[in-house]
Amino acid sequence: MAPKRSAASRQRQSTPLMPCPTSYPVKKESGGMEEAQWIACWEMLNKVYIALDAGRYLAPIFAQLPDKTLYEDYYSAIPEPECLDNVSLQLGSQGYSTPEDFFKQLHLVFLNAKHYNEEDSRIWLDAKMLEDQIHENWRLKASEGIFSHSDPYHFSPRKPRKAKRERGTSSTRASTTPGPIVDPASASVLPLVAEHPSPIPTTPFVEPIATSTVPPPRSSVAWSLTPAMLAQVEADRRIIADLESRLPRWEGPKEVIHGDTAPGGIPGSGWFGEGAPQYEQSVGGPGSWPDRIKRVVHALSEYRDISGRLLVDTLNQVPTLVDIPYLSFNAPISFSSIHTNTQSSRYRTLRAFDLDMVRLFEKSRRWFQGRTQEYGHVLELQRLYNSLTAPFPMNLPPSGVPPPSPTHFASIPAGPGNARFTHELAPDAKSSSEPVGRHFTTFRIGTKDREFTQEARHKGLTYKLGDYVHVMNPDDPSRPIVGQIFKTFVPTKGNRTHHITICWYFRPEQTVHTADRTFHENEIFKTGHFCDHPVEDIIERVSVSFYVKYIRGRPQAPEYYPGWPIYICVARYNDQKQMSVRIKNWASCIPDELRQTDFMTVIPFARQIDPIKVPSPFLRGIKGPGFLGDPQESVGDEDDDEDEGENRRAARVSTREVQKPEQPVIPNIGINVQAGPSRPTQYIPSQPVPTRQVWSTAPTPPSNSTKSFVNLMGGPQVIDHLAVRELLPQETAQLFERDSRGQVLWFSGPPLPLGAIPVPGQPSHSIEYLEYLAKRKRGESGDDGGSKGRKRYTGDVGLSNGPVNSGNEAGVGVGVEEEDLTKIWWAQDQTPGKILDALRSVVDSI
Questions:
Q1: Secretion signal: which residues (predicted)?
Q2: 468-471/538-546 β-pairing
């Protein structure tokens, strides 16, 4: 049987890269090895990386862990996976207290390989060769007095031994990993390892920090659920995970955004040092880059918030290697490695430094997602970083450390629940037109002093009409503002930088509601608050789905990528009336430009999900600017127009009078349908179909077009549920005309070929009309062009306009005088044919 090999088994021809510093790191207060012992361990590990067998490097197959998606059985057979790169990172960060701890983890790499692969296979033989090599190196250093004992396991109760394998059994069966019995008091802590680590780090040099084995907490409802509800939640999560595993991955920020090189007159892709060429020249150009990077890192390292907390400690808690799915990158990265690269001036451009910091913040947000305090610290540091690296950066005091910001560096003074409209009056306002305090949002999109653009750019990302974003919340950084972009613009006054106009969404804790109100997990409310933000306020892209879309699937790219925060919206919220209204007309909630497009098209789940509901956040210990109370007006459904109330009553009356239409006979497709649209009310499991959807049987008025396919299948809602949508491949879509969001434009039919529609030629006129035109051109006609006084010419065959009748019969008008055409002075001595040709030539020349 051939040995099992991971995707990393392809041998690289170049020398393997060991992600460990060559110089001795400073010993930490919490522990670490002395310089002589550390150098001996480094040399032992380096010999492993450069070990050769017949010109072939042995280390690459052991440098990284196997792909989890390809080798799931590896992680069930090996309870403690380990790889060379992880050992190297731990050694470089002084993660081992003694040489024995280092050796045990290094030895574990080869013990795992020998246990998983068949004996005498290539990988097994390579692991055996390297195992013998490190034992020999240990004994050599022990003889030199660097290590205290010739046996690296002299502290352990027993030495590692090869696990006994029954003859004929598979080598991949789950069993205890053969390895040393490590003393818990001296065991080193292993970090979680990235699922798809990159073989080449993005940074010039990586110096990791001490890592943590605590994984980021999963999002879960914060109240007790019944076993049936828990089973439903887990089943829905599996449905979601199955779909997201097949969706395209987010590629992250781009170093260069193609297209318009300077949208709104601002060049670049939004990176540090781009967007303000004149300012860049004034501060020294490329020669000033190392010092500018150091000032930014120093400000982040020393900044303390209002409570005196050093926020960079939160970044230092993020492990160098983590197992976070759907990150846009795989390379190990930490604030410590960025700090080391900065002090050594290893960043050649501002963009390279900026890209590492953007990735670090992405990783930190995902790691602390769900942990309120730490997540808020990361967002506050990110907003500070955005201010320090803006096209026109914030001014720093002589100390180089910004003072604590009461608004967490947000550009606005208040967030949802505290902000007020500019047209509202404050209680102590001196005049009716004076906005007081936190009155700065508007109920419509501003148009003054701005130049609208097609997109805004920031940190290698584009932000366009309709995109949902997180922006900084000045009241609580752990709960960023959710908003949808309605406009992107550049101010015509002041510094020309990218800005966005967004419509805010409120969280439940930012609203006023009754104590018995329940909410969907991650539910938010559409509001009428519009606010302008500089792009530096943007934290990240997110996704918002309306309820009817949320339960059916996930938005297609680029409106959603796996790993992005996603919210569900069911209702509007009016903070002036302190009431929420269920949304019926979803198109009214998005920008006008997107209402006739396929915005928020979803890729369907295997079945619809049923989002769980949770009690009020105030009953779960969550605080916010909202509170428990009764709305000032009754809660109801959204009014689509002024006459909807009357229409509802009329509809109810007419519904009672209409008999229930007969249901058409439809092939068994696992869904009960009726003639006419209806709402899904319940999901009942049945056999053999896993999920059966029962549709409402309320009678509906009969449709005039009863023979249409839509009515035959049970109405548009049933069709929308059953229809299978297929997306054009990207390479095919690029061949067709597309709209501003990149969607292919569809037409009801093909274009018509030339000549398919007959074009009428030049009309033929009667002889009297031609004569009239000729006389008018010569100035000889004295009438007004009406029928009165008009002459009808007769007498010659071919010149008559039809039979001439007397009286008021057809063909003769009142007051029409008959005259022989040949008696007119200009037609004398001419044949009728010549007269007709002469009249036509005159008309044609007009």
A1: none
A2: antiparallel
Report in angstroms the alpha-carbon separations of 157 from 100, 486, 595.
14, 67, 71
Structural domains of the chain, with CATH = 7-143 (1.20.920.10), 420-427+438-628 (2.30.30.490), 767-845 (no CATH)
- Going by C-alpha positions, the residue among 655, 442, 609, 399 that lies closest to residue 528 is 442
791-794 and 52-53: which strand pairing? unpaired
- AA letter at 546: F
The amino acid sitting at 627 is: F
Nearest to 292 by CA among 309, 303, 279: 279
Q: How many CB atoms within 10 Å of residue 270?
A: 25
pLDDT tens per residue, range 709-744: 666 665 655 555 556 667 778 788 888 888 776 778
Tokens read off for 740: 């501003």
pLDDT at 95 over 80: yes
- Which two three-digit tokens encode residue 57? 């490097």
Burial code of 633-656, b = ≥16 C-beta within 10 A, e = fewer? eeeeebeeeeeeeeeeeeeeeeee
The better pLDDT of the pair 25, 350 is held by: 350
Cβ 216 vs Cβ 192: under 8 Å: no
The answer to whether the beta carbons of residues 611 and 550 sit under 8 Å apart is: yes
Would you state the pLDDT for residue 323?
82
Question: In 27-121, which ranges are continuous DSSP H helix?
Answer: 35-49, 60-63, 72-77, 84-92, 99-116
Chain-centroid distance of CA 331 in Å reads: 21
The alpha carbon of 679 is separated from its chain's Cα centroid by a whole number of angstroms, namely 29
In this predicted structure, the answer to whether residue 98 has a pLDDT above a threshold of 50 is: yes
Find out whether 193 and 321 touch, Cβ atoms under 8 Å: yes
Q: What is the DSSP string of 754-777?
A: TTSSPPP-PPP--HHHHHHHHHHH
Residue 689: is its pLDDT beyond 60? Answer: no
- DSSP secondary structure string, 329-397? --S---HHHHHHHHHTT---SHHHHHHHHHHHHHHHHHHSTT-HHHHHHHHHHHHHHHHHTSSSPPP--
